Amino acid sequence: MSFPQPFYSWRPHPWHGLSVGDDPPGTINAFIEITPFDLVKLEVDKETGYLRVDRPQRSSSQPPALYGFVPRTYCGKRVRDLMPGAAKGDGDPLDVCVLSERQITRSEIIVPARVVGGLPMIDGGEADDKIIAVLVNDPAWSHVEDLSDLPEVIVERLRHYFMTYKLMPGETAEVSIDAAYGPEHAHAVIKAAIDDYEERYGAHQ
Question: Could you tell me which residues are beta bridge partners of residue 27?
Answer without folding.
Answer: 23, 114
